[in-house]
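[job 0412] stage=fold_complex status=start
inputs:
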Amino acid sequence: MLNVANLTASIEDNPILKGIDLNVGAGEVHAIMGPNGSGKSTFAHALAGRDGYEIEGTATIDGADLLEMEPEERAAAGVFMGFQYPVEIPGVNNMYFLRTALNSVRRTRGEDEIGARDFLEIAQKAMDLVEMKKDFLHRSVNAGFSGGEKKRNEILQMAVMEPRLAVLDETDSGLDIDALRVVAAGVNALRGPDRSMIVITHYQRLLDYIKPDFVHVLVDGKIVESGDHTLAVHLEDHGYAGFLNSGLDDASLSGATA
Amino acid sequence: MSETMRDIEKLTEASYEYGFSTDLDTDVAPPGLTEETVRLISAKKDEPEWLLAWRLQAFAAWQEMDEPDWAKLQIAPIDYQSISYWAAPKQKPVLDSMDDVDPEIREMFDKLGIPLHEQKMLSNVAVDAIVDSVSVTTTFKETLAEAGVIFCSFSEAVQDHPELVREHLGSVVPVRDNFFAALNSAVFSDGSFCYIPKGVRCPMELSTYFRINSMNTGQFERTLIVAEDDSHVSYLEGCTAPQRDENQLHAAVVELVAKDRSEIKYSTVQNWYPGDENGVGGIYNFVTKRGRAHTDAKISWTQVETGSAITWKYPSVILQGDRSIGEFYSVALTSKHQQADTGTKMIHIGADTTSSIISKGISAAKGQNTYRGLVKIMRSAENARNYTQCDSLLLGKECGAHTVPYIEVKNPTAQVEHEASTSTVGEDQLYYCRQRGMNEEDAMAMIVNGFCREVFDELPMEFAVEAQRLLSVSLEGSVG
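[job 0412] stage=fold_complex status=done
writing structure:
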């Protein structure tokens, strides 16, 4: 489904990703773990199409060249990114935003737009999934939301957009244990044979709730180890120290959360 | 400069969709302004002696005045002698029904999306259509007359209701008020007049649509709205002009009189031709708008200013009666080389008076946008309150936003609040919307419309939709 080969990314000649190879099959959940500054978020943004990186290598989704596409075309191709820091858009009604988003990708795909009433049903189901109150849809996009509400809103959007590939960037950061449980339950409910997920996290904690099929360890722009979910448990016990090059520690690396 | 910023610049180079001109057979006075010109205009309109005297008094005052230079505007010198002060489309002098409207004029308004045929009207809005200097038709007159509401062109009001005009003309904006108001008082051509009798709630929205069509003419219209005790009216005004290389002058005066416990809601969508992306052409828009609110009365100004090369405009409220309320909601967009210096004046005289000001300035391309506002609390205004919020949005690196609030408080019981913010449309916001599937134009329009939400919420429904669309078009270059 997603095939990434020798993907590199740099900002102003600073290499951040140094050759990533990753194949994600349909219905699989892959976790990418790594210390701060290892390039986890950059990888997510490289897939989603953020401006400002020089990218080389290949990335295809169902055979289509992802790197040639604008961000909105990637969205229409089924790529959804759950943001680590969801963006506030004051004055824009959450429901209006979501419906515009959904109909934008549907238009691009040549599908019929969804009317207000049908959309409300879709939105209602998604809200139940992340245990959101009704007024939530009528507030401005993320404006004045708590950290937990913002993350739940990302999952709600994912439920509405029904992506082919969801890339969740540190969805667990800033969540208390109750919010984490709600978010994880939402993600699990959205797992399916046609939907692949890449779950990016610093901590193993999230993976207690979302059991990945594969775990990859990203250090200094490269995947240094891959395995099943037991790898995450190993990391919990031993940390990333064993994977770090000598002389480098977390703090000396940059660009992690950009 | 990042790619996104370049894209924003590209998007803001919009084209103007009302730029066509219509070939009308027009009666135009030769350029120039002397006492003779004033007499000619008055004679053309067959005005009573008192009105000619009033005009001449204004003309004399104007000759001794200088153009105001305090605004943050760079304006090429205006040669007042090269402008023609009278232009009127030639057509049958008396209109018996809508069918008598010149088909070319009707076609022009159809093109603008303003149907003058009452049967064709979708919404409950009465329209007064003004081309160049003259009102060409007013719709729904009879329906309004049943409610006792007078809604007609200013010229008709002078003929049919001289006592009402004489009583209120210049009562809110005196002839000597400022340079442009004096000029308007001397040469004003037409405009709308509206009178709501005691206790009447006007049964429909009233609307005036202004169109400048002729070359080298100025447009000087005058609007007067009188709301008697316990009455209510909502009034809309829209404006467009053809695309021409020279600058054209528009200097209007609007006076509102809100008697005890009455309410006047005045909404404007101003879309005069803004000039091209090199700053050539465009309307110079110098407007004086002011209302007087008597006891327990309320005056609310809402404006969406997207057009004109120069906008100089401060819709104001004199809060004269106790507990009167003044409101000002504004969206001003400057793109291309547009300059706007706009805001309001809230003059608190009565006790327990309240005013609120919400101003949203959007600057794009090389646009310069200044909010200038005065809140004045007089000694007599016990317990007056004002809340002001000025937000500026910058789209690009070569535009500017400026906020110039003046606050004068002479009564210690006053409460005056002022909040201001400046922000940009972040690349993060655009990226977020695009990741969700929207293209850049849609994303930009959505973000900017969100920024203006509080003001658009004040507009009547059809106008709000129009304003949103206009804003999107002004920003995106997607000609409808």
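[job 0412] summary: The first strand of chain A starts at residue 2 and ends at 11.
[job 0412] exit 0
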